[in-house]
Design brief:
alpha/beta; 4-stranded mixed beta sheet; binds pyridoxal-5'-phosphate; 16% strand; 14 helices
Length: 391
Amino acid sequence: MTLLAEVAAEALAAIHARGTHRRMRVLDGAQAPRMIVDGREVLLFAGSNYLDLAHHPEVVEAAARAARDIGCAAGGSRLISGNLALHEALEEDLAKFFQTETALAFSTGYAANLGVIPALVGKGDAVVSDALSHASIVDGCRLSRAAVRVFPHGDTEALDHVLEIASRDHRRVLLAIDGVYSMDGDVAPVAEMVALAERHRAMVLLDDAHGTGTLGAQGRGSAEWCGVTSGIDVLLGALGKGLGSFGAFVVGSRALRELLVNVARSFIFTCALAPPQVAAARAALGIARREPWRRERLQANAARLRQRLAARGVDTRPSTTHIVPVRIGENGAAMAVCERLLERGFYAQGIRHPSVPEGTARLRLTPMASHGEDEIDALAEAVVDEVDRAR
Ligand SMILES: Cc1ncc(COP(=O)(O)O)c(C=O)c1O
């Protein structure tokens, strides 16, 4: 046995023993509410193409045109030959849309958190974060070498206390939180948290990967949904979820952009987004802006799903958005329900530790704007049956 084979066998045996072994399903066909998953046609309730823009003709045409006119790669990092007029145009669109001074695109949301957090805090500083923060916030905190202080999920009283101590004991403090929790579908109490950060003179990073385009009257996300118009220093959004393309961005002040261009390692030491991705994101942003019915339908579909499930005794708390969890508890049971739903023609992903805390394995249901009410009802019916069977 090679050393690598030994390492892999040992780690994988432990993963199997925990019941958390993962495999990738293969999807085929156009990104749509109905797709081929592992060779079987099913209704897709597991994706993040929430507004159904990834295969929108205008988005596809924009990407194709950019590939034809410019090419399939930016040809370098943003600071070395890869900064295209197209990137700057996307960033102007984003800054205008979010009513901020500037925007800066990153390769992914994961990379953005790895770059932004260490750009803002380091040794001698503190970063304060929610217990259920996304892995990319957690990893960004670790990379920063700042002291990490965690408060219980959504608990503003505890946050007040943690911020008070952090600001007393550290030079600078950053509050880094998610807008929409990607595995629970609840929205952070952004207004209260931003007010607390202001009171304790902490900077605020709001990671709104799942709120971009999907929440708020204009689609500006969870801050807009919570009525917050100021006090967020860094708003991080996704291009690869609701906006149906790839990549991520941050919006904020001129000073923020200049700082990140100069120090954010995950911005500096990586290829710039490819032209088709950038062009697709610009087209999708335009559609999201002028077609509010997409987020309205998305939220209506999610509300219908939650209501249908609740009426039959299936709890979807704490979701208030388009991410609808159904807690099952035990890993094997959650994955068994996921498999049975696939057999019945629904792809709803089972989620286990470490994506969620141990003992809280769940189905994560994500309707799209373009699912019909009959499809939502059929899913609810099948979930109720299978969850009942698993209990
Ligand atoms: C809250 C949050 N932040 C960041 C990310 C990472 O974004 P990306 O997929 O663009 O890397 C995700 C991904 O699901 C997320 O849920």
